[in-house]
């Protein structure tokens, strides 16, 4: 039992070592090593881009552009242990430009928000209800959020990033990341309340206080 409790930490360390070795090889011009990085992190990046660009085909185009830019910039990339965050930052910038061309203002106000508004706890009600038969309704509701809120929800819920890392990926302040998350949770509460049982709906601000 003790050994099993240590397995996740070993896996994380092993994954970081693999990324570090692949990044070093890619920096030296090894395209096969870079292709392995795409295999390792591509699913997470594509899932994130699909949150930002739900229209079929858009996310795939942004995905290709993201990894093209990553390959060109891999030699100047920073800490290999932050590789996924680095890739997500590139994806965010690519999506911001791509969606701006298709829909002006899609990412407008990404660094705005009300910093005094609290974020929901890590174990949010959304995480609890986004399973089983309700998952489709949750996905549809998330797609109706503004792009800036979809980005924060994807990074927080789908990829389990801490708010400080979300802020780095999006190029905003941590309190703004928390504010966008809070606003997204409140919007999802309004959209999902008619189809969810009362005990499953995210707590209101008054209840959390």
Structural write-up:
The protein is an all-alpha fold. It has two domains: 2-102, RNA polymerase sigma factor, region 2, helix turn helix motif (Rna Polymerase Sigma Factor, Chain: A, Orthogonal Bundle), CATH 1.10.1740.10; 125-208, Arc Repressor Mutant, subunit A (Orthogonal Bundle). Helix content is 67%, strand content 0%. It contains ten helices and no strands. It has helices spanning 2-27, 31-52, 58-73, 83-102, 125-129, 135-143, 147-158, 163-170, 174-192, 205-208. Helix 2 crosses helix 4 (83-102), helix 3 crosses helix 4 and helix 6 (135-143) packs across helix 9. The longest helix has 26 residues, at 2-27. The chain is globular, with a radius of gyration of 18 Å. The model is unreliable at 1-10, 109-123 and 200-209 (pLDDT under 50).
